[in-house]
Write a structure and sequence with these properties.
It contains 17 helices and 12 strands. The protein has 359 residues and is α/β, with parallel strands linked by helices. Strands 1-5-4-2-3 form a 5-stranded parallel sheet. Strands 7-8-6-11-12 form a 5-stranded parallel sheet, with helices on both faces. It has a two-stranded antiparallel sheet with strand order 9-10. The longest helix is centred in the C-terminal third of the chain and has 23 residues. The radius of gyration is 25 Å and the shape is elongated.
Length: 359
């Protein structure tokens, strides 16, 4: 064969610049995939089920022959789709345009597409071990001894914006809430441009982001990565346990900003949202918030008194954060706190850099 089988590390290095074709079925891709890979299914979900059943109940040969019935009529379609992907990827068509191809275990599906693209003149690489090998790489990545520094603070401290300020200043940063498409509270999913990913897809994107940070450093285990001091669960996804344990034992930089200033900040941020979404979010907290507090908060919101409505919620989240902090790390008084008078993310990030930035 003219196409080349390569290990996952080299595959991902090439994937930074060249298109990845995921030839698994549409439902497999939809559940989770290598970030930025294109869905390029050899079989539809129904075709895959037919071929898989034949493989198990009849023979490998029978499955291959039935698969060829599906594969053969679509050969020209695959080549047209490949050319469209090159254009979408911003590349010029040439004899040696590289494609990276993978299926589930690096077997017949990726071999079929790789053979066709190689025959047509493309430079083709397949992933040894397929997506399964990539998933093993992902899980191992979370066990590394990453040098993490957590940014902590009560709700409404502007932590996401502060982290972004650190990133713009050249610090290595991972925005867990952005990867999770959720802000971590009952209001976390409101206004998000996309639904939350599956747990597997969240892990895939997180591992790639860790690797991106490592690629920027001289030593992936000593250069610091900033991460928000999150709960392990962010909406419907969880931070992988080994990374979560690493976060809990990492250095914490805690910002202490007055309650009233944080209340002003979240009133501005969430006050733009549709009232019906806000009421629905508060209603979901009823068991934890209590019937009376829930009723009062909803009443204030419906009356347009967002400050009083959010004040009830902010007090609840402050207590929740302190309880979680105590469980993870100990009492707040045992940590150095950075005191700020206002929620000014850019100014705060500059002060944090002055104290903790890389020299």
């Amino acid at each position: 064969m003219a196409y080349k089988q390569i290990e996952v590390e080299e595959f991902l290095r090439l994937a930074v610049n060249f298109p990845v074709l995921d030839v698994r079925s549409p439902s497999e891709y939809e559940h989770a995939h290598i970030p930025k890979a294109y869905s390029f299914p050899l079989f539809s979900d129904e075709e895959r089920a037919i071929v898989g059943t034949l493989y198990k109940q009849s023979s490998r040969e029978a499955a291959i022959r039935r698969g060829l019935d599906f594969f053969g009529p679509k050969l020209n379609h695959y080549l047209t789709e490949a050319e469209q992907i090159i254009a979408r990827h911003g590349m010029a068509r040439s004899e040696k345009t590289p494609f990276l191809v993978h299926c589930w275990r690096g077997g017949m599906r990726s071999a079929g597409i790789a053979w066709l693209l190689d025959l047509y003149g493309y430079d083709v690489y397949t992933l040894k071990g397929g997506y399964k090998a990539f998933r093993n790489w992902v899980l191992v990545h979370f066990t590394k001894e990453w040098n993490i520094r957590c940014l902590g603070g009560y709700t409404g401290s502007g932590k996401t914006e502060i982290l972004d300020g650190l990133r713009k200043a050249g610090e290595y940063m991972i925005d867990l809430e952005r990867l999770a498409r959720h802000k971590g509270s009952a209001f976390g999913g409101i206004g998000q441009p996309e639904k939350q990913p599956s747990q597997e897809m969240f892990e895939n994107e997180l591992a790639i982001r860790l690797q991106e940070c490592a690629a920027l450093t001289t030593d992936e285990l000593t250069d610091r990565i900033w991460i928000e001091d999150e709960s392990q669960r962010i909406g419907c996804v969880n931070i992988p346990q080994p990374l979560w344990e690493r976060m809990k034992s990492s250095e914490l930089v805690f910002m202490d900003i007055p309650f009233e200033k944080r209340l002003e900040y979240i009133t501005r941020e969430y006050g733009k949202l549709d009232r019906s979404f806000l009421v629905a979010a508060v209603s979901r907290l009823q068991k934890k918030l209590g019937g009376l507090e829930t009723k009062d908060a909803i009443g204030y919101i419906l009356d347009g008194d967002l400050a009083n409505g959010f004040s009830i919620l902010l007090k609840y989240y402050d207590k929740l954060y302190l309880k979680a902090l105590d469980k993870k790390r100990g009492k707040l008084d045992s940590f150095e706190r950075l005191m700020f008078d206002e929620v000014e993310p850019m100014a705060i990030s500059e002060k944090i850099l002055a104290k903790y930035g890389r020299k």
